[in-house]
Amino acid sequence: MNSFISWIGGKKLLRKRIIEEFPEKYDRYIEVFGGAGWVLFGLEKPASLEVFNDIDSELINLYKCIKHHPEALQKELEYPFVSREIFNNYRDITIKGLTDIQRAARYFYLIKVSFGADKDSFGTNRKNLYTSTEYLSQISDRLKNTVIENRDFTQLIKTYDRETALFYCDPPYYGTEKYYDNNFKEQHILLKNVLSNLKGKFVLSYNDCEYIRELYKEYNTIVVNRNNNLVSKNGKGRKFGELIIKNF
Ligand SMILES: C[S@@+](CC[C@H](N)C(=O)[O-])C[C@H]1O[C@@H](n2cnc3c(N)ncnc32)[C@H](O)[C@@H]1O
After folding, report:
1. Residue 7 CB–ligand 1 contact under 6 Å
2. What whole-number distance in Å separates Cα of residue 40 and Cα of residue 168?
3. Does ligand 1 lie within 6 Å of residue 56's CB atom?
4. Residue 16 Cα, ligand 1 centroid: separation in angstroms?
5. Residue 121, Cβ density class (10 Å: 0-12 exposed, 13-18 middle, ≥19 buried)
6. Ligand 1 centroid to 201 CA: how many Å?
7. 114 secondary structure, DSSP code
8. What kind of architecture, by CATH, is found in domain 1-56+150-248?
9. Distance from the CA of 79 to the center of ligand 1, in angstroms?
10. What is the Å distance from ligand 1's center to 242 Cα?
């Protein structure tokens, strides 16, 4: 199935290729850098333990509300009125005392209505929030047995690591860290160190660059091409290289 949102660095176009690289057997699946979860939603069937994680607490609040209170969230989004003024208010004004569902609705609106899901600039393409809102029931159903976590990758990996685990890691790409709220720039080496000590298996996505090739040179690395979805506002998508790195 498809995700319910777009996300910067989302793996919509590459997920089929990534899943092809998964091992045949694993009994726990952990998506460490969740975002829009394109890979998780692309899996044919969930593992017996499935974990979805992201450090972005507003994003995780949205997932939790969809999972546990889809109808309340749909009601909150009942008359989604797309306008630049509302978008700017949601983006710029922090209201204290909102419920989790109200916060989730605002966050969903910002993702849906912004250009390229950047939550910052009002997008001018046609939007159908009604269809998007309806789809949340299916997402809720898909997530019914999924554990939703909101932790830093180091703690998360430590908690769920077993020999039978598969970790899919899609960190902020090298050089694109500024697109996400928390700064990942200093953490590429830390991630490599954590993954090097793993008992389980990992599949890791990265942009193809010398730095990452060198960092993971002892691992099985596959080079693939995809269209760039970090498009500039006036630019067209271009082909660029991606790495899929694995420890098996
Ligand atoms: C490239 S995106 C993941 C895209 C996702 N695979 C998809 O298909 O939409 C990277 C994600 O990592 C999250 N992130 C950044 N730093 C993190 C950290 N230290 N621990 C866990 N998640 C983190 C960001 O919030 C962002 O959602």
Report:
1. yes
2. 9
3. yes
4. 19
5. middle
6. 19
7. B
8. 3-Layer(aba) Sandwich (3.40)
9. 30
10. 16
Per-residue pLDDT of the chain (248 residues; tens, 9 = 90+): 999 999 999 999 999 999 999 999 999 999 999 999 999 999 999 999 999 999 999 999 999 999 999 999 999 998 768 889 999 999 999 899 999 999 999 999 999 999 999 999 999 876 778 788 999 999 999 999 999 999 999 999 999 999 999 999 999 999 877 777 667 878 999 999 999 999 999 999 999 999 999 999 999 999 998 765 554 444 455 567 999 999 99
- Output b/e per residue, 176-209; b: 16+ Cβ within 10 A: ebeebeeebeebbeebeebbeebebbbbbbbbbe
167 ligand 1 Cβ < 6 A: no
Give the CATH H-level superfamily of domain 57-143.
Adenine-specific Methyltransferase, Domain 2 (1.10.1020.10)
Q: Which two tokens stand for residue 180?
A: 């996400």
Q: Whose CA is nearest to atom 8 of ligand 1?
A: 10
The model carries a pTM of: 0.92
The full set of domain ranges for the chain reads 1-56+150-248, 57-143
Check pocket membership of 206 for ligand 1, CB cut-off 6 A: no
User: What is the atom index within ligand 1 of the atom nearest the CA of 36?
Assistant: 9
